[in-house]
Amino acid sequence: xxxxxxxxxxxxxxxxxxxxxxxxxxxxxxxxxxxxxxxxxxxxxxxxxxxxxxxxxxxxxxxxxxxxxxxxxxxxxxxxxxxxxxxxxxxxxxxxxxxxxxxxxxxxxxxxxxxxxxxxxxxxxxxxxxxxxxxxxxxxxxxxxxxxxxxxxxxxxxxxxxxxxxxxxxxxxxxxxxxxxxxxxxxxxxxxxxxxxxxxxxxxxxxxxxxxxxxxxxxxxxxxxxxxx
Length: 229
Ligand code: 13P
Hints:
Blueprint (H helix, E strand, L loop, with lengths): L3 H17 L9 E5 L4 E3 L15 E3 L5 E2 L7 H10 L5 E5 L2 H8 L21 E2 L7 H10 L5 E4 L3 E6 L2 H22 L9 H14 L21
Parallel strand pairs: 6-7
Antiparallel strand pairs: 1-2, 1-5, 2-3, 3-4, 5-8, 7-8
Helix pairs in contact: 2-4, 3-5
Bound molecules: 1,3-dihydroxyacetonephosphate (13P).
């Protein structure tokens, strides 16, 4: 387990990468990561360029905190980390294409195999609820059932990860997928891959830890790294 100070510094780097990647701007967006006793979360309304490791807020699962005022979305960060032991980091942003779909309450279907990256045949869109409310947290948790990402109606997206880097990776993938879907929709509603094909895709992604790291060794249909002789 990384030390608290390392996690704080990593959070600053991830937030800056989030802005540099183009999926976030201004003071929108927020990030959290699990700690041994609770979680760290970005402060509310603070530009990431000005944010330092000391500005990151330490919170407990009972909603008490130390330091600056936590993100207004601390409830869904807390509730997701509490409910999902498979997740250690939550990232929220208003990336433009994901939010475009969310403004129309559109679920992303399996129009492209990469929809499977979030763990199912769709990326759901949560019903609209006011930002910062328990109602939004409840809606998000429901839309994230069995998934590593969801859209938030008329708001943005949430992406999850085993760490902050994988949550950021997922958020960028969701934005790219959303952009492709918006683009595909300009030619009409695209055809959808079958549930059977998506089952194969998701099994393959799971087996290869797709996008998450090196493949398992010893499989005969995936490449293996050469060993020096
Ligand atoms: P915070 O600055 O409070 O994290 O709010 C930003 C946001 O995106 C609200 O949904």
